[in-house]
Amino acid sequence: MANPSLSAIISKHELVGIGVGKTGGENVGLLADSIDAAGAPIYTFERSSHETEMSDWLRDSHAEVVLVYTFNFKIAQSCLAIPKYGFYNFHPGALPEERGSPLFWAIRNRQRSFALTIHKMTEHLDCGPIYEREHCRLDDSTTFGEALEHLGTISRKFTIRLLYELEKRKGHLRLSDQNAAMARFYRNPKRADIVVDWRRQTAEQVQALTNACNPFCEGAIAIIDGRETRILEASPIMLEQSIQGKASGVPLPQVEGDLCIVCLDNTVLRIDVLCDSGGYYSGRKWLSHRYRRE
């Protein structure tokens, strides 16, 4: 989500450094081209020791404002107080209604819209006053990764505007306090949340779970014919032939070569892309390999 905004910062403002949490370091590779263009140093922080290290970095760099895009742990209050204009967080979710990690749940629960909220950070997670927020549309095919890309486009627009107004108004922005009575916190999903239950989920619900797990979680976990797989793309379909009495979670006799599974309420899911211990496959290829391996 940060890449479009990073490019905007480089082109219009002075970038004094980039900070990442240690467990989020793998994301630096996604920003490699932009980072090379900036020539800015990269700092990696440990959760346990970040307060001292980040404080030293902020003072040495004389950063006036810090923009945060999906940082992977809570930043100490002592750090937040150092930059002249503070820290601003680009939060995937509508605040205060969607604090925490709501994007997975929004897609899994088939919400029709999602939001990016920019707020000034305080010692309390996702609770600071709001600068701006904007909604985007979700549909039945939107994946976690696609939603983040769209939020990245929105974040670029607001990054440019925020930096301009901070400079013009000397940090005195019009911010709106959050209504704590409307707040709801969304936790990170656990393994049980990303497992397909063929008997209790319709084809539409499995598709939504699959989208929420792609590429986040590397796909929805599903047992197909006794094998653990990860589903990355799937679509509900209508069949002309009757499927009454067919067991849930078992591949139907080949439907024009497609890998099709019966779900709750006799709905049918066509699996288009999945992976298992052998690699990544189209549904058709996985189905043909299944019979070859038996």
Brief digest:
With 294 residues, the chain is α/β, with parallel strands linked by helices. Helix content is 29%, strand content 24%. It folds into two domains: 3-186, 3-Layer(aba) Sandwich (Rossmann fold); 191-293, Methionyl-tRNA Fmet Formyltransferase, Chain A, domain 2 (Roll).
Can you tell me about this structure?
The chain folds into two domains: 3-186, Rossmann fold, CATH 3.40.50.170; 191-293, Methionyl-tRNA Fmet Formyltransferase, Chain A, domain 2 (Roll), CATH 3.10.25.10. The chain is 29% helix and 24% strand. It contains eight helices and 13 strands. The strands form four sheets. Strands 9, 10, 11, 12 and 13 form a five-stranded antiparallel beta sheet that branches. It has a four-stranded mixed beta sheet with strand order 3-4-6-7, with helices on one face. The chain has a two-stranded parallel ribbon with strand order 1-2. The two termini are 43 Å apart. The relative contact order is 0.10. The mean pLDDT is 90.
Keywords, please?
five-stranded antiparallel β-sheet; 294 residues; Rossmann fold; Methionyl-tRNA Fmet Formyltransferase, Chain A, domain 2; 2 domains; four-stranded mixed β-sheet; 24% strand; alpha/beta; 29% helix
